[in-house]
Write a structure and sequence with these properties.
Elements: H1 17-43, E1 49-54, E2 67-75, E3 78-88, E4 94-97, E5 109-110, E6 116-118, E7 123-125, E8 131-133, E9 142-148, E10 151-157
Antiparallel strand pairs: 1-2, 1-10, 2-3, 3-4, 4-9, 5-6, 6-7, 7-8, 9-10
Length: 167
């Protein structure tokens, strides 16, 4: 059987019991591994959220001008502190944005032409948080905002951490 045309097809050759069990066992192991990865990712519950005070005088906010503010407080018994971007709208309400780009969690900054720019991957967002260009999969994430006796509070997760700008 020196000629290639005389060789039997590997598909026509019956598989031995030992080889069949090895293939089945390997396939089952991969299925268990992949399902384990998927179920563990979906079984993780989100961090608790809570209201924390922002360090800002809302009377000093200028419409359409982004301002970075600090916040600090306690959520579910754990201290939490960080920053957020605030934008006062023409309607008078205020938007609060998570300072992490939704693409790779990099810090982004406000530009002189009323946009947000994430320089990690050249992404741009408008002042409503919508993606203008770049790879982000969704708009900027927002924090809910409320006014309590003239003090601005943000609804943040207990495990929040502000990203460090690239050096």
């Amino acid at each position: 059987m020196d000629d290639e045309t005389d060789r039997p097809s590997p598909l026509a050759t019956p598989m031995g019991r030992r080889r069949a069990l090895t293939v089945i066992g390997s396939s089952a192991a991969w299925i268990v591994l992949l399902e384990g990865c998927g179920s563990s990712a979906t079984s993780v519950s989100p961090a608790p959220r809570g209201w924390v005070a922002a360090d800002v005088d809302t009377a000093g906010l200028t419409t359409g001008q982004p301002v970075s503010v600090r916040f600090a407080g306690s959520v579910d018994g754990s201290p939490v502190a960080g920053s957020a971007w605030l934008v006062k709208r023409t309607s008078g309400d205020t938007l609060a944005f998570d300072p992490r780009c939704p693409h790779a969690q990099c810090a982004y900054e406000a530009t002189d032409d009323a946009r947000f720019a994430c320089l990690c991957h050249e992404a741009f967002f408008d002042l409503e948080g919508a993606v203008l260009s770049g790879p982000p999969p969704r708009p900027l994430d927002r924090f809910a905002v409320r006014d309590v006796d003239g003090r601005l509070e943000l609804d943040v997760p207990a495990d929040f951490s502000t990203p460090r700008p690239k050096a």
